[in-house]
Amino acid sequence: MLELSPAALTTAGIALLAAVTVTSGGYFMTQVVTAKVPATPFQTSFYRAGHAHAGVFIVLGLVCLVLTEATGLTGAWAWLARTGVLVAAILMPAGFFLSALGRGRQRPSRLVLLLPLGAAFLVAGLVTLGVGLLTV
């Protein structure tokens, strides 16, 4: 049986607690789609994308965290493989939600730059983990 390192256990605990915010995002989404919170079509689509990315990336991030324990990666490489997707789970949804904030917004604000930054962490984490698994 695979035993998780203290770093993996701590990261998993934080990720699971952070997953609670996805629940509050789901409640917010019900308020948007039932018109209890006014939103433009652009805002509604960005809020949906942010909510979906958050949930999917937290689950994928937890899988990556466990798989990292099966590699020989150490130091910064292990950190990137273990947490890259989880960092993306914060940055990308934040980019969707925060860039859509503002009454009647029709286009994203500058905070949309969080999306490519999150995508970079996503790709870097996945590639690092993939290479780590292939070289065990």
Provide structural commentary:
It is a single chain. With 136 residues, the protein is mainly alpha-helical. It has one domain (6-134). It is built from 4 helices and no strands. The protein has helices spanning 6-33, 41-68, 75-100, 114-134. Helix 1 (6-33) packs antiparallel against helix 2. The longest helix has 28 residues, at 6-33. The model has no long low-confidence stretch (mean pLDDT 94). The chain crosses the membrane at residues 6-29, 50-70, 76-99, 111-134. This is Integral membrane protein. Keywords: Membrane, Transmembrane, Transmembrane helix.
Instruction: Report the major sheet.
Output: none
Order of H and E elements:
HHHH
Overall pLDDT score:
94
Please report the distance between the alpha carbons of the first and last residues. Answer: 17 Å
Gyration radius (Cα, Å) is: 17 Å
Domain unit count:
1
Give the overall form. Answer: elongated
